[in-house]
Amino acid sequence: MRGLRSFLGLLAILIAMGAYLYFVESKRTPGADEEKKEKVFAVEAGVIDEITIKAESGSTTTLRKSGSEWQVVAPTAAPADGAEISGLTMNLASLEQERVIDENPADVKEFGLAEPRVEVTFKSGGQEQKLLIGGKTPTGGDVYARTAASPKVFLIASYLDATFNWQLTDPATSRSDQAAIEGLLARIDGLQMKSVEPVDPEGLSRHGLDKPAASVTIGTGSGRATLLVGSPSEDGSVYAKDASRPEVFMIEAGLLDDLKRDAGEYRQKDLFDARAFNTTRVEIARAGQTTVYEKTTVKTPDGKEEQKWQRIAPSAGEVDGAALDSLLATITGARAESFVETAPAGGQTELALTLAFDGGKTERVTFAKSGSDAYAVREGTAGAARILPSIIDDIIKALPEPAAPAGGQAP
Fold first, then answer.
1. Predicted pLDDT of residue 137
2. Average pLDDT, stretch 361-385?
3. What confidence score (pLDDT) does residue 88 get?
4. Per-residue confidence at 406, pLDDT binned at 50, 70, 90?
5. How far apart are CA 144 and CA 343, in angstroms?
6. pLDDT above 90 (res 395)
7. From CA 355, how far away is CA 275, in angstroms rounded?
8. pLDDT at 22 over 50
9. Alpha-carbon gap, residue 202 to 292, rounded angstroms
10. Three-state SS string across the chain, please?
């Protein structure tokens, strides 16, 4: 709930950034903007059953509805955020043409539509429709768009750009550092405008906002708010703007430093979520053999129940509980120093550890060395963690004595 409150707080702050515009708008003649706008698509949100989005980054994501649930089906299979997809389908169904620019343009290149930044294709009842999104207007308040079925170029509200420019970003893979994220949200939550610049179409490039140094988009369900941060001002602040409004203002420069931090600094650095006290199963794969330990409940001679570690593979047997607890403390205390896209090829795998905890959750991490470097790869997580080589050495030293082979002694 704390994160949700932060998100809602941020949305309020970003909306407040343009609050003074309300006092201008409120002076307009009633009914001046009440002309009914034409919808882009004649479709109901509930009947949309497949969406494919080609994002500005070039990535393509396909989502498909099965019954009442949505799933990501490409580029990889994964559950989809129901609130996120609900907001997407509702925005497609309610999308309006803010203004028609040209009914039949000779060339759509000037609108950024010859090679659209974003393409949203959706199906409903077997019928396919497509939205093409191009460049932003000079003020940044709207975005040029058209459909695949018509040459007409029209404007849509720029805040929808972030909604439709959707891409799959590590579904259930990259674990975030909650403390780091909360710290960033707290900083944004306390953000204040130092001053507001006069509206000037040329000001975007002069203030570095035509190609922002950083941007942050905050969302809650279907709601979105995007803050663009540009170049430094003479007084040490930085220029910024709400992406959906033309006004430029100044904010503290420290936020830009936070937004430009490497993404790895916001990732969870603990290699395992499990902890020694809640782990119930340990699998150790090393040197061609897998050893398995499980925590079971047994009765003591006086009839009391207690939990005790047992070895169940490669052969059943007793194990020193204190040794297992010490091993788990070493394993679950392992942390990443940094992250890389992939571990170097040709590294030597030292061991792989699988932990079961909290009533059925499992996680597997493979440890390898490459020269003087060491890496850990968490199953289902993008990239690899760079770790201290001593972590692997400490884990191996803490391993219990190997099980004795049938009819023989342990080596």
1. 87
2. 91
3. 87
4. very low
5. 42
6. yes
7. 9
8. no
9. 67
10. CHHHHHHHHHHHHHHHHCCHHHHHHCCCCCCCCCCCCCECCCCCHHHEEEEEEECCCCCEEEEEEECCEEEEEECCCEECCHHHHHHHHHHHHHCECCEEEECCCCCCHHHCCCCCCEEEEEEECCEEEEEEEEEECCCCCEEEEEECCCCCEEEEECHHHHHHCCCCCCCCCCCECHHHHHHHHHHHHCCCCCEEECCCCCHHHHCCCCCCCEEEEEEECCEEEEEEEEEECCCCCEEEEECCCCCEEEECCHHHHHHCCCHHHHECCECCCCCCCCEEEEEEEECCEEEEEEEEEEECCCCCEEEEEEEEECCCEECCHHHHHHHHHHHHCCECCEEECCCCCCCEEEEEEEEEECCCEEEEEEEEEECCEEEEEECCCCCEEEECHHHHHHHHHHCCCCCCCCCCCCC
What the block records as the tokens of 247 is 């006004």
| pLDDT of 367 higher than 90 | yes
Over residues 205-219, the mean pLDDT reads: 83
Rg, C-alpha atoms of the chain: 28
pLDDT reported for residue 3: 40
The position carrying tokens 């499992």 is: 362
Residue 239 token pair = 């220029």
How far apart CA 133 and CA 155 sit, in angstroms, is 9
Predicted pLDDT at 103: 95
The sheet carrying 48-54 orders its strands as 78-79, 69-74, 60-66, 48-54, 118-124, 127-136, 142-147, 153-157, 99-102
